[in-house]
Input
Amino acid sequence: MDESPAMLRHQFEDASQQRESAVLGMWVFLATEIMFFGGLFAAYTAYRYQYGAGFAAASHHLNMLLGAANTAVLLTSSLTMALAVHAAQVGKKPAHIAGLLVLTMLLGCAFLGIKAVEYHDKFVHHLVPGASFVWEGTLTRQAEMFYYLYFAMTGLHAIHMLAGVGVVLVVAILAARGRYTPQYHNPLEITGLYWHFVDIIWVFLFPLLYLIA
Amino acid sequence: MKHWMGFPMFPEQASSVAGRVDALYFFLVAVSGVFAILIFGVITVFIVKYRRRPGKMAVASGHGHMWLELVWSVVPLALTMVMFFWGAKLFFTIYTAPPGAMDVFVVGKQWMWKFQHPEGQREINELHIPVGRPIKLTMISEDVIHDLFVPAFRVKNDVLPGRYTTMWFQATRKGDYRLFCAQYCGTEHSLMTGWVHVMDPPDYQNWLGGGAEAGPMHVIGGKLFDQLGCATCHKNDNTGRGPTLVGLFGSKVTLKSGQVMQADEDYIRDCITKPNARLLPNYEPIMPTFKGIISEEGLLQLIAYIKSLTPPQAAKTGSETK
Amino acid sequence: MTTSEPTMPPVHYLNCDYSIRSWLLTQDHKRIALLFLVSITVFFLLGSTYAGMIRTELLTPNGNVVSHQNYNKLFTMHGLIMIFFFLIPSIPTVLGNFLIPMMIGARDLAFPRLNLASWYVYTLGGIFTITAAVAGGVDTGWTFYTPYSSIYSHTNVTTMAVGVFITGFSSIFTGLNFIVTIHKMRAPGLTWFRLPLFVWAIYATSIIMVLGTPVIAITLAMVGLERVFHIGIFDPALGGDPLLFQHLFWFYSHPAVYIMILPSMGVVSELIACFSRNRIFGYKIVAFSSVAIAVVGFLVWGHHMFVSGQSAYAGLIFSFLSFLVAIPSAIKVFNWTATLYKGSISYDAPMLYALGFIGLFTIGGVTGLFLATLGMDVHVHDTYFVVAHFHYIMVGGAIMGYMGGLHFWWPKITGRLYPEQWARLAALVIFLGFNLTFFPQFILGYLGMPRRYHTYPAEFQVLNVMSSAGASILGVGYMLPLFYLLWSLRRGPIAGPNPWGAKGLEWLTPSPPPTENFEQTPVVTEEAYAYRPEENASG
Output
């Protein structure tokens, strides 16, 4: 594979070693992210088993429609991201690549916006765990536990989305400047991997949190 | 403590399992000692015999020594499996209280141990027990995790907030043996110690008779049952808004969710402290929670009362193994 | 050998640029290794000071040196600092960073800027920790058991938790860097089974670092949330489960102990090979053992919880697996011993440390079997027996390996030789002081002295005094290298490229090496430890 020598960092022998290292590095990083979310999934599993009834009742107050909308938004953003990487691979114009990345970003922001609406709704209805938590009905402690995990898991996910949006913005700007060619588009490729990962996490969160019962 | 050449080496063997634990210990020490001496010895011989000398070169090991690798993998594996099975068997003995064990109830809190005998005697940091009888401790913490440890008996178990844990032992010799808290619990963790006093059965009976001001646990529990209004809903003839508690302890209960639970000490405690988590079919969820209103001792007394509503032959002894 | 007197190369990685900027913004793995060396040494001194105060207090049964709460803070900070800020980083960030690229014939690690970030993240975590210490310390024990840590303790738990959380990312970055580097940047001809065993050990360690550390991070984050917002995921009063904390905590913290020992084992392989002039007996088995320890090490965490209220059946499984994980370590000890057979053995200080490692690790390892044995662990859990066991592994094992490696590669890192007689003396003093400190603790534990006790029954005093006496000797032993190693920087004899006559790509470079390590990427044609090339050339 031809290399653009300007992009080759000094520690690597050639461009393919650099690309493979970047990709492997991102996969290892994603493995750490799985373990990071894993702790919360483990806590969720333990308490869902113990508090099935309370979790089901609490989950009713989540807006399934908004959750589904968010799922659709994220899946679409993964499509646009994949298209952006493909565009670079086949040598499309910078504007084309950047446009797809901007679309991905906008969809990501849409996700965050819908999430903000949901969080606000929870706040207004006193469903934020802690001193102000109010629950009509029995099983208060169980419902509060559900919402703790809801906020912790979706919150951690949202932080990752925010970071992702930031990275996509930077990459979009660089793409617009023509930085990515079929010979060199490592940052784009690994950003894509990260984005898909964050999407997949949501694909697990949605049924676990919104679709109980 | 047992001494060797003037040095203290291991505690008294004062329980029925202590000898077995020590035997396992000596086996482990022997195996470890043999391996350690073997390794040290061989290394010493090799580093002297093969020390660097001018003109003498190292001889690289050939290939094809898989048999040796297998031998020194399989032999340790076999030894460790002996350790595993021996230890597991002993573990199940340590954790399975024999039926008919005498109950004692323990509440741990920062930084003291509160013991209560069913007959009513209460003690702080001291536990009087008769020799030769299995004793089953049902334990809970008021705050953080503690651990009750009696080295002379070779047993310990964590004491948790929010649920009961149990431990049993049978003392085999009279005497006074130290007890410790063995799970770090805050500032005065190292002061949370005390004594187990093992007595001859007649002396123990005398001691028991000498000071239960308020009466046996189940009697106090009965008074609490009335004072707190439990009797209003839980009538013995099952005509109240709540189910009767006669015959409850030790039975199997089907919850509204379909889950089947054993009505042991934990179950009863949960019913009192978080009734909405133990809803029954056919009953309204109107029982209030008594969490924070009744102390852990009070809960144990209530449980003793509820146990007394079950005829002895029908009652199981609750959770025996974990 | 052409010249009789070794010389320093005129330009090397240390003198190519003296500015502060060139150090603080370096991307050279060798300089980053030295940045870490300074940092971990500072923390080692701090952690040792706490240890000294603990042993001073324990000279007498009553607490008359410090108050109860301050004693609790001492052992907490001692544990946290030694584990997270000394042992876990030590070999990987100092020797690993310096040597991995050189051992595989590369110019640097795969991600040099990530490497530098790792040091800055470590330093930031360290700042939080020092802040927590200065602001009054933490008294939860390094294990942070809830609900004490999440609700009851009035000390700087959250600050400390943040410090450990941040430092965890340093571990993750370093491990990620090593994994990618070892996979992708080996020199031509350097197949996996020609790698030095130190590289295998670091690789296995890195797997644990990247997969385990995120779990402690999220767990401590949850403890922090509980403390700050009073929402109870671990609080029984709010429906939470304190045992959930223990499971999550030990899921990382058990593999963490393998992070601490595996690199040392890798160093020992290098030292035994060089100082017996022999290839390591059973090379492939030793390599696979490292990976086996890393994998099985993730499956045994419940052996810390046999008496916690965990089910007895879970205890059975964890006990069984704990015995299995011991076997690969035993295999390594046997293989190292067999390497000495018909070797040509010299008694240089690194070899003394390696031999000391094998002896002390053996004792530490077999006492681990006591703890894995269910019926035995009930008695000795949470007593000084456990304290003795893990110090044998971590100090008698891991630190001896680190010291041995530091001495072995000192000439490569600095270009100077350390004074051999002083080094041998220090090794001996450390070995004797260590055993006097920790062997009595096995007996203390079996007698029933619980750990984390500020005051204790008078009948335990004799053994405690022996232990404290040993600690003072151990302290002297550790001070000696601090002085003579620093001395050697200016006054030590020039080392030359390969003062030990060792095999390994790092010894082909000048001492100290140039920034880019190799003029030309080497091509590898022989096995590791090819001390007898004609017998070792691979077919």
